[in-house]
Structures are given as C-alpha cells and as structure tokens.
Design a protein that fits this description.
2 helices
Length: about 150
C-alpha cells in the first residue's frame, strides 16, 4: 500500500509539473504579444521589395510594403488624431490611388517632413487596409515610412 501511495504522489507531482509548464508557456506567449514581442508594424513587411501602389488593393488584409510617387499631401487638422494623407498615384478624391495615413503621434516622431514628400517616391510598410474603396496603410511607427529609390510605378 505504501508503494501505491508513493507512486500516486510521483504521478501527481509529474502532472502538476506538466500543468505548471503549460501555464508558463501560455503566459509567456501572451506577455510577448502584449508587450510588443514583435517589432513595430514593419517587422515582417519591408521596403526591400515593395508592391507597386496599383497592386495594393489585391492584398487588402495582408502585411506588406507599398511604394509609389506622392501625388498630394494633406493634413486633416480638424479630424481626431490629425492624420496626414499621402496620396500615391493621384490626389484625393481622384482614383485610382493608394493612401498612406500618418497620425500626429507618429508624424511627430518621424524624421521625415511629410509635406516635403510631394513628388517623391515613398514606401510604406504595414497592414494593407481599405477605406471607402481605396487601399491604404496606416503607418503605426516612424520606421514604417521612408523615401524609396525607384520609380513608384
């Protein structure tokens, strides 16, 4: 009987260790996601080989990088977050175009003067979204927007 009790205790201890290890893994994974275990928005998407702005609408919902010539830059100071819009391809409201959206918090941390980018080719990295039928990337970190060497097609 004493042997059975000892074996049962060892089995319970092993089970407890297994459960504790499982909980530790789950908590560690969760904390890494909450604490930004992945680098900013452009961690997966880079401007090394970006999509042309005309192709972006085919990739809505995916992480990517999009390049194009800036046709117009406007800041909506009367809108929450004071976004600056860089219209690639054509100025708003013309279509087709691709919009790069940079809110004030990111704009103020950026080293680029966004209004000086009109006529330049830029690349934005992040999740490709869509608003009112126009593909866009909302830049969530200053590193997610850069001048780009290329034609911007």
């Amino acid at each position: 009987m004493a042997k059975d009790d000892a074996a049962a205790r060892r089995e319970r201890r092993r089970n407890l260790v297994g459960v504790a290890f499982g909980i530790l893994l789950v908590v560690s994974f969760g904390l890494s996601r909450i604490g930004g275990g992945v680098a900013p928005d452009d961690a997966v998407a880079t401007c090394e080989d970006p999509l042309a702005w005309r192709e972006a609408a085919e990739h809505v919902g995916a992480r990517g990088a999009v390049a194009g010539a800036v046709a117009a830059v406007t800041t909506a100071a009367d809108v929450g977050g004071e976004p600056t819009f860089l219209n690639l391809g054509a100025p708003h409201p013309d279509e087709p175009r691709f919009d790069v959206v940079v809110y004030a918090e990111v704009r103020e941390a950026a080293t680029l003067d966004l209004h000086a980018l009109e006529g330049e080719v830029v690349c934005a990295a992040g999740t490709i979204g869509e608003r009112d039928g126009v593909a866009q990337i909302v830049v969530e970190h200053p590193a997610g927007l850069e001048r780009h060497e290329g034609t911007g097609r």
